[in-house]
Amino acid sequence: MKTGIDLISFYTSRYFLPLQTLADKRGVDVGKFHVGLGQERMAVPPPDEDVVTMAASAAKPLLDKVDKSSVSLLLFATESGVDQSKAAGLFVHKLLGLPSRCRVVELKEACYSGTAAFRFAAALMEGRPEENALVICSDIARYDLGSPGEPTQGCGAVAAIVNAAPRLLTFDDASGLHAEDVMDFWRPNYRDEALVDGKYSAKMYLNIVALTWTHYVEQTGLDVDDFERICYHLPFTNMARKAQAQLFRAAGIKRPSDAQIDEKVAQTLGYNRLTGNCYTASLYEGFACLLDTCEADLSGKRIGFFSYGSGCMGEFFSGVVQDGYRAHLFADNHKALLDNRLELSYQAYEDIFNLKVPEDGWEYVFAQYRTGPFRFGGVSDHKRHYEEVE
Predict the structure, then answer these.
(1) Are 198 and 162 in contact (CB under 8 A)?
(2) Cα separation, 118 vs 57, whole angstroms
(3) Do 148 and 139 meet the contact criterion of CB atoms below 8 Å apart?
(4) Which of 82, 148, 169, 295 is 20 to 30 A from 31, alpha carbon to alpha carbon?
(5) Are residue 81 and residue 188 in the same domain, yes or no?
């Protein structure tokens, strides 16, 4: 019995900044963002929204469909952790009312750790048909104001149920892997904003596409034509097109056409174009977008996945979409969420960006903004407090 993804749900902030607004403020042609990056909007989290509240909000719809008492594992992948010791998943565990007989762990390796969480969960659920794993990827992409990375900022969370009777996707066994110590992207403990060597990071990303694909093919003998679609980690949407061109070249197709590239990736990009980078969640945001919006029936089709975490760790793996998958999607929820967000002015965006959580440990209560069913209420005695929105 193969394990895989049974349900998947996506959540992002209820606020966004149009990149047209950012382009006007920075004095650049908006085509640099809309065409060059492929981005239209960036999701902006308000002060009472963080990776914990986004994670719980993404997961809540799943638990309306699954018996909570069956959840024996919660893996929380993030590079935007809220505590150097305590797993963010334990805050989520309480907010969602999950059982005490449950493993809870936080995973970190830049944007790759979400894939590690899915693969670990699948292995642990094998042969346990009565149990469910809850995998959550939740992140806030944040760079310095005016930096090259600023227009790729965003936030979001993906939550999924992984089990031995999946209704959406079964994972194949093979994985193409590559690990290498590089400094293309990092965030020291003393900084809130990430640092990135953009050109070097893009070069490493594309190199790892080819290396992991080669390793995968060595194990499986499959070719690019064996994949109906391929989902990529999305620091920005056009990176997927560059990555697919690289994969075609690695597969021996030296001059792939735009139509060939778009056939494989275009339907994975719609959500990311409206949210910006979600780090660990971005690959699976793309998968959710594919399932929700692809008009063609994907039942029985093999989907490829390329996961890249700067620093760096890469993996190419695959899975097969299950018959009847459309009956188990949250497509209407996702569309409503993206259609009903509040547009920010540039000044409101900058005010939110500059508002820091105090570090002195005294008592602070945060004003209530528009969030999902959970919010970050404040800090007292160095402890974070979360609450359900009535």
Answers:
(1) no
(2) 19
(3) no
(4) 295
(5) no
Can you tell me which residue has the tokens 């992991």? 212
Nearest to 184 by CA among 167, 173, 198: 198
Predicted local confidence at residue 1, as pLDDT: 66
Instruction: Assess whether 337 and 318 both reside in one domain.
Output: no
Q: Is 111 a catalytic residue?
A: yes
Are residues 187 and 309 located together in one domain of the fold?
Answer: yes
Structural domain count of the chain: 2
Which domain CATH number covers 176? 3.40.47.10
What amino acid occupies position 87? A
pLDDT in tens, 339-384: 999 999 999 999 999 998 888 888 999 899 999 999 999 999 999 9
- Looking at the structure, do residues 64 and 209 belong to the same domain, yes or no? no
- From the list 115, 43, 66, the residue with the least C-alpha distance to 277 is 43
Shared domain for 160 and 189, answered yes or no, is no
* Nearby residues of 257 by Cβ (< 8 Å), 6 or more positions away: none
Residue type present at position 152:
T
86 and 75 in a common domain: yes
Options 49, 79, 228, 315, the catalytic residue: 79
The DSSP 8-state label assigned to residue 34 in this structure reads: I
Out of 93, 178, 215, 233, pick the active-site residue.
233
Query: Based on C-alpha coordinates, what's the Rg of the chain?
Result: 20
Q: Spot the catalytic one: 102, 106, 109, 111.
A: 111
pLDDT of residue 362: 85
Pick the last residue of a domain from 328, 344, 360: 328
Q: Find, among 315, 316, 285, 321, the residue nearest to 303 by Cα.
A: 321
- Say if residue 291 is in the same domain as residue 381: no
Q: Is 178 a catalytic residue?
A: no
Of 287, 302, 328, which residue constitutes the final position of a domain?
328
Token pair of 30 as six digits: 């908006």
Find the domain containing 355 and state its range. Answer: 4-169+329-388
Single-letter residue type at 290: L
**pLDDT score at 361:** 80
pLDDT in tens, 9-24: 999 999 999 999 999 9
Annotation says 79 is catalytic: yes
Residues 288 and 363 occupy one common structural domain: no
Using one digit for the tens of pLDDT, what is the confidence trace for 88-97? 999 999 999 9
Q: Write out the two tokens for 314.
A: 């890469």
Positions in the chain whose pLDDT score sits under 50: none
